[in-house]
Design goal:
The complex is a heterodimer of chains A (345) and B (332). Chain A has 345 residues and is mostly beta strands. Chain A contains 1 helix and 30 strands. In chain A, the strands form 7 sheets. Chain A has a 6-stranded antiparallel beta sheet, with no helix packed on it. In chain A, 54% of the residues are buried. Chain B has helices spanning 30-39, 53-56, 84-93, 113-122, 124-129, 144-150, 152-160, 174-187, 214-219, 249-263, 319-327; strands at residues 17-24, 46-50, 63-65, 70-72, 81-83, 102-106, 130-140, 163-167, 192-195, 236-243, 267-275, 281-288, 291-299, 308-315. In chain B, helix 6 packs across helix 7. A 7-stranded parallel beta sheet of chain B has the order 3-2-6-1-7-8-9, with helices on both faces. The chains are: A mainly beta (345), B alpha/beta (332). Chains A and B meet through strand 16 of A and strand 3 and helix 3 of B.
Amino acid sequence: MSQAMSPDRLLEERGDSRSLDAFVVAAAYDRSGTCAFVLGDGGVRIVAPGKEWLPVAAHGGAVLSLAADARAAGWVTGGDDGRFLRISTDGTVSELAGFGMKWVEHVASHADAKSGVLACSVGKAVHVFDAAGAKLKTVQHPSTVTGLVFDAKGKRFAASHYGGASVWFVASKTDNPRKLEWKGSHTGIAMSPDGDCVVTAMQEYSLHGWRLSDEQHMRMTGYPAKTQALSFTKNGKWLASSGADSVVLWPFFGGGPMGKPPTELAGGDGVTCTQVAAHPTHDAVAAGFADGLVVMADISSARILPVAAPGRGAVSALAWSPDGTHLAFGTETGFAAVVDFSKRG
Amino acid sequence: MSDAPATQPTEPQAGQIPVTVLTGYLGAGKTTLLNRILTENHGRKYAVVINEFGELGVDNDLVVDTDEEVFEMNNGCICCTVRGDLIRIVGGLMKRREKFDGIIIETTGLAQPAPVAQTFFVDDEVRAKTRLDAIITVVDAKHLPARLADSNEAEDQIAFADVIVLNKMDLVTPDEAREVEATIRKINNFAKIHHATKSNVPIAELLDQGAFDLNRVLAHTPDFLSDSEHEHSDDIASMSFEVENPIDPERFNAWIGALLAEQGQNMLRTKGILSYAGEDRRFAFQAVHMIADGDFIGPWKQGEPRVSRLVFIGRNLNRPQLRRGFESCQAA
């Protein structure tokens, strides 16, 4: 390794990092390319290019969830203080909704040229709002919602829960979901970019998928730990997942993932992968591990580029900027960084 | 990543948050006890998981209101259920773990204790970050006989307890008190019993006890070998066995594995401290129904007799069969 670059070189030469003294719960870029980290102490840090990191006091307890706002800039957050908040890039905090004692566990958003839509989950309910923050509707599920995602067009959203997942139309007046059933406890959810596949993570160390067009079930098993992160590549060919000692990539092409083995990258050292984030434009994936290692992996060449060396706490947050030039990551022990991958002239 | 060996924490490990489970039939005094824990000045902060917030009315920014969600596990174990909500809540609380010293989980009056206990065996993340400190059951001394007559839950809550608060003692005569304590002992001869009026047990006697620590449980067991009643009965009973010769781990695993697989539904709790042949450390074993776990804990003390002890709490326990089985595990 001595001839190769130091595992920390990217972080040292192209990174901007801080110790934030609180669990980094999530990272997300807004649609303008500004990054936010949300923390276990209720705080938010806003990282705009070329500016000092801006601390924002947002929630009373821990921040539990983060997504880019449906508007041109800013974010929405959910907290265990029962509040669903909108955070502007200048640090202004406004409350979209309050739910008292209940945790706002998941938030999601969709933006397009015409409008946008926001959603948050509180217990068994998902509340849907327009981009201005006006509530459109509330839908109920048989048990607590454990994951929430919009499809790529913002027309539908899907929620995971005990016994499967429910897919709802945002604009539908009759509120009956398409019920995707599979016995067991489903703990997270992703939707393929073409909107045809819904995949959940399960308590029993496996993934379960449904192909909506032909009702085909997909079972993806073999994980030694629970999958916390699921991320489809932009073209929908691969589903990256955490929960093994490598980045597990399931092929969603050529008849897969049924009957196909997954591709495993960046494995072999016995440390569990805790976070994955597919690159927004290329067939590449960033991954974080329980020992603090962060890498970027090119899927077709299987080349691994180290981003940050182990030793700063289990990676708990990972996100790409919309143009794919910047990667943000954070750890359970409060380390946070943004790394610049853009070409330098 | 290779499958990590099962290690249910039986001794406090660095950074593990102690969890106390508070059970008890409706009206037994559970909420009164919880209110005392939250308002008394003991210098420690607890995150509290409840689902009856309306009754509580306590100002604590760490109260989590939840719906008890009991989920079946698809792990081949027919009686394995867990509290899905607790897995989520523990994960959420860990994001601000420096804000509290322990977690208290209050269950509803009609709750079965098994799913709560099993959650701490089954979920790896919960297991890594927390340790089950004790299951405390609050019992109404006056009304226990009626509760036992009309519900299985009341009996199960006593069977699962590490600590029992025998409450409302001001409402019973000394004779009634003796009788109710004898009734409890028939179900669970191994729990520590505190007498109380208006749940007035010193908090220090309840929290951070390491009561789930088997060493302690077994060391404080009264009348260890005198529980000879209630065999072949549908009632819950508790039985204990001792073996003086060292145990062969392979034989023990084969025996206990088959026993729990076959009769796990009737076995509410199984706990033991074992002396393995050629091993200086004590092996702590425990199971809730079919879900078993074990790990080495500290070494045997100098001069301490290296006796292996096993405790069963359950229905339809067959004493001679259990004794023969345990004795067959002795190393040759």
